[in-house]
Amino acid sequence: MRSALLPALIAGLLALFPHLASGQLRLDVSGGLAAPMTDLSDIADFGYNVAAGLNYGTPPMPIGGRLEGSLNGFSLKSTNDDVRVMNATANVVVNLGHRASSPYIIGGLGIYNSKFPRVDSENAVGVNLGGGLRFPVGGLGTFFEARYHAMLGNASSGTNLQYLPITLGVEF
């Protein structure tokens, strides 16, 4: 039964999203440096960011979208422990040109999960806003991006973290 589930899911996605079959949907992977901001910068050092996303729209289209999940990790200054923030976001991408090497603005809403050492993980709604530049390399679509993320929770539960990932990515 399970072996038939994956092909059925793929067929269903292709039927529901004809843009996937036509190349309008693209997968991206990215990674880079994550800079802690505001209160998080008081307790944590620079960290890392890894992300994967599903993009809709190409630079000839003025507006597109991206569904994305990411993992960010920061080393605590006072211990050898880490703070981790995971998120899933839905974003609008505004293309500022019609060429493959055009800049863009990106922003959206998401659900964020923070985890401090020896404390239960906490969820909060959050927002992000930033920009990037696409620059094709060979047949690959590559991009450089910086985006400010802010969790909209409260300080006592550790759900008001803010950080700035600076990433390099590839679209397939």
Plain-language structure description:
By secondary structure, the protein is mainly beta. The chain has a single domain (23-171), classed as Porin. Helices cover 15% and strands 59% of the residues. It contains 3 helices and 8 strands, in the order H-H-E-H-E-E-E-E-E-E-E. It has helices spanning 2-16, 18-21, 38-43; strands spanning 25-37, 44-56, 63-76, 82-95, 103-115, 122-134, 141-151, 162-171. The longest helix has 15 residues, at 2-16. The protein is elongated and about 45 Å long. The mean pLDDT is 89.
CATH topology (level 3) name: Porin
Q: Summarize the biggest pleated sheet.
A: 8 strands, antiparallel, barrel
Helix content: 10-25%
| pLDDT averaged residue by residue | 89
Strand content: over 45%
State the name of the first-level CATH class. Mainly Beta
Unreliable stretches covering 5 or more consecutive residues: none
User: For the largest beta sheet, what order do the strands appear in spatially?
Assistant: 1-2-3-4-5-6-7-8
What is the tally of beta strands? 8
Output the structural class: mainly beta
Distance between the termini: 30 Å
Q: How would the global form be characterised?
A: elongated
A few lines on this structure:
This protein is mostly beta strands. The chain has helices at residues 2-16, 18-21, 38-43; strands at residues 25-37, 44-56, 63-76, 82-95, 103-115, 122-134, 141-151, 162-171.
